UniProtKB/TrEMBL annotation:
<dbReference type="InterPro" id="IPR002502">
    <property type="entry name" value="Amidase_domain"/>
</dbReference>
<dbReference type="Pfam" id="PF01510">
    <property type="entry name" value="Amidase_2"/>
</dbReference>
<protein>
    <recommendedName>
        <fullName>N-acetylmuramoyl-L-alanine amidase domain-containing protein</fullName>
    </recommendedName>
</protein>
<feature type="domain" description="N-acetylmuramoyl-L-alanine amidase">
    <location>
        <begin position="57"/>
        <end position="166"/>
    </location>
</feature>
<dbReference type="GO" id="GO:0008745">
    <property type="term" value="F:N-acetylmuramoyl-L-alanine amidase activity"/>
</dbReference>
<dbReference type="InterPro" id="IPR036505">
    <property type="entry name" value="Amidase/PGRP_sf"/>
</dbReference>
<dbReference type="GO" id="GO:0009253">
    <property type="term" value="P:peptidoglycan catabolic process"/>
</dbReference>
Amino acid sequence: MTAVMNAVRARQARCAALGFWPGPIDGIDGPRTRLAYAAAQDAQAAKGLAFHHPTGITRIHWHWTAGGYSPNAVDLRSYHALIDGEGKVRWPVDLTTSRSHTLNANGGAIGLAICAMAGAQERPFSWGKAPITPAQVSALARETARLCRTYDIPVSRWSTLSHAEVQPSLGVVQRAKWDITVLPGMDGPADPITVGDRLRDLVARELSTF
């Protein structure tokens, strides 16, 4: 059966993001998970913070729309925020509004998407008609950094991640998603976590300027 982002799995991901390893992100509330949860709660309380933000937001999922540089009607219904071809960020809805951007893993996650990659192909690789631009990548990093600061989201593989990383990092099976596994200047797609680390490095740099 396909795994879902249940409450325990979400808690495990949050613990891992905060630096308290709960063991496998598997949705099972075992002893190691409970110990990590208690330690994470104590650490947050020491900083005057709850385990997570009152909105319940704990993660940011990065996507591309597989469309053109302007959001279409489907994009506006699917994501919380969209980055157009000029790098401008558009928020069609409040971030607590339900959106279906990640299979079985939408709860607690902001869907932040780059409007790009229409006609792109993973194998053999083709950028398609609307390749991701450097301006869009920069905007993605800036907006992610802003959201991380506002909603107490650590920059980590379990809390700021691409759609392609959801399955290997959170254990929730997706349908052959490869966004975002290629960035401007790359010859083709690469390991999703390696590419995600590049994006997280950009986010960390943005946070250092705040």
